[in-house]
Amino acid sequence: MSKLKIQRLKEEYDLEGLDDELKHQYVTENKALRDLAAYVNIEIARQFFQDKPFSPDHVYRVFNEPDEFSKRTETELRKRLSEEGIDIEELRKDWVEHMTVRSYLNRVLNIDTSRQRQSRTHDEVLTDIRGVLNREESIIAEILETVDDFDGEKWDIHTDLRLINDETGESIRIEEYFRELDAS
Questions:
Q1: Neighbours of 96 (CB within 10 A)
Q2: In whole angstroms, what is the distance from residue 146 CA to residue 106 CA?
């Protein structure tokens, strides 16, 4: 049987204690699979940047939480990494998604991840939605970079998610909708 991606990465990056930490965070702290994926990715970055002047957490956040950082920040970081001879895309290929973590928890650590999710707070839902929108913005940015005369350093990409009432046509930003729910 072939190794799962996280098994290979544990060996490649010498991630001792990863299994215990994943078990603790998932079972004891009730962390979400996306949080566990971020943890694994930052640990991989920590090993990757060993002896290099880059913060693993910062690099991970710049490339995975673009709502917190401008496209310009990402471009500048990418340039600094390149100047140090670091190919960020090689590192990003090793980063894992939450479904990879789920498979690893189920198949290797024998942890049941099928539990029903409890009701989530508005902030938790908004955080997940922002993550999806950030990934969309990154994809759009990559597509736009293929246009010869597009100046990616001049523009930031922003998506705005709105809810539209089918009956009335009323439109509201999702953040405003949740604020109104919280206020009532």
A1: 20
A2: 39
What are the residue ranges of helices labelled H in the chain?
5-12, 18-23, 33-48, 56-64, 71-83, 88-94, 98-107, 122-144, 174-183
Domain assignments of the chain as residue spans, ordered by start: 1-118, 119-184
Give the closest residue to 77 by CA, choosing from 96, 98, 49, 97. Answer: 49
Tell me: the pLDDT tens digits for 50-96? 888 899 999 999 998 877 888 889 899 999 999 999 999 999 999 99
Listed residue (111, 152, 91, 143) closest to 26, CA to CA: 111
Model's pTM, two decimal places?
A: 0.63
Residues of the chain with pLDDT under 50: none
- 33-48 and 56-64 are packed helices; what angle lies between their axes, rounded to 10 degrees? 130
pLDDT reported for residue 117:
54
Compute the C-alpha angle 6/7/12, nearest 5°: 90
**Burial of 60 (C-beta count, 10 Å sphere; 0-12/13-18/19+):** buried
8 Å CB contact between 9 and 44: yes
